[in-house]
């Protein structure tokens, strides 16, 4: 191997995480309750993007720590609350959602992230839509 190729490979392995494309990204959440007259479209930011992962095909030869699969997840976040319009008095009209401030590549934390990708997931309104800019 040439010295340039070897240095490039070492640099890529060492600093691969910092060059990942994991960052806050604009996202619209659609929220509705059966009792309420409207669907609320909320503009927020989520963590999305690419994180370096390791091929687990050689799992018998590698340590468990070398097999970790990193995901783009929250580094800093806060929660906002929005009110769904058109709800009757007996219904709680509030919906809280996370807002990403910064992101990182790391292990998925089920305390505040949905770590499983569902195949049948809808993100649209079935009722008249109201826009919420927070």
Summarize the structure.
The protein is mainly β and 134 residues long. The chain is 10% helix and 38% strand.
Question: Would you tell me the overall average pLDDT?
Answer: 76
What top-tier CATH class fits best? Mainly Beta
Give the helix level as a range of percent. under 10%
Count of discrete structural domains: 1
- Could you tell me the CATH topology label: Cystine Knot Cytokines, subunit B
Question: Which of globular, elongated, flat, extended, rod-shaped describes the shape?
Answer: elongated
Proportion of strand residues: 35-45%
The structure class reads mainly beta
| Topology pattern, helix = H, strand = E | HEEEEE
Low-confidence stretches: none
CATH superfamily: Cystine-knot cytokines
Number of strands: 5
Write the layout of secondary structure elements.
Layout: H1 3-15, E1 23-32, E2 39-48, E3 71-83, E4 94-106, E5 129-133
Parallel strand pairs: 2-5
Antiparallel strand pairs: 1-2, 3-4
How would you describe this structure to a colleague?
The protein is 10% helix and 38% strand. With 134 residues, the protein is mainly β. The protein has one domain (18-131): Cystine Knot Cytokines, subunit B (Ribbon). The chain has a 3-stranded mixed sheet, with no helix packed on it. Strands 3-4 form a two-stranded antiparallel ribbon. Strand 1 and strand 2 form a beta hairpin. The longest helix has 13 residues, at 3-15. The protein starts with a helix and ends with a strand. The model has no long low-confidence stretch (mean pLDDT 76).
């Amino acid at each position: 191997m040439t010295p340039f190729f070897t240095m490039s490979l070492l640099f890529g392995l060492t600093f691969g995480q910092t060059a990942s494309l994991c960052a806050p990204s604009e996202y619209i959440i659609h929220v509705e309750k059966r009792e309420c007259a409207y669907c609320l479209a909320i503009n927020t930011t989520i963590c999305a993007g690419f994180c370096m992962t390791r091929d687990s095909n050689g799992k018998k030869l590698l340590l468990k720590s070398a097999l970790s699969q990193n995901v783009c997840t929250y580094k800093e976040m806060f929660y906002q609350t929005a009110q769904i319009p058109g709800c009757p008095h007996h219904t709680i009209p509030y919906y809280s959602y996370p807002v990403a401030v910064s992101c990182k590549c790391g292990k998925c934390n089920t305390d505040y992230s949905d770590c499983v990708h569902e195949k049948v997931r809808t993100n649209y309104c079935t009722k008249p839509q109201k826009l919420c800019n927070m």
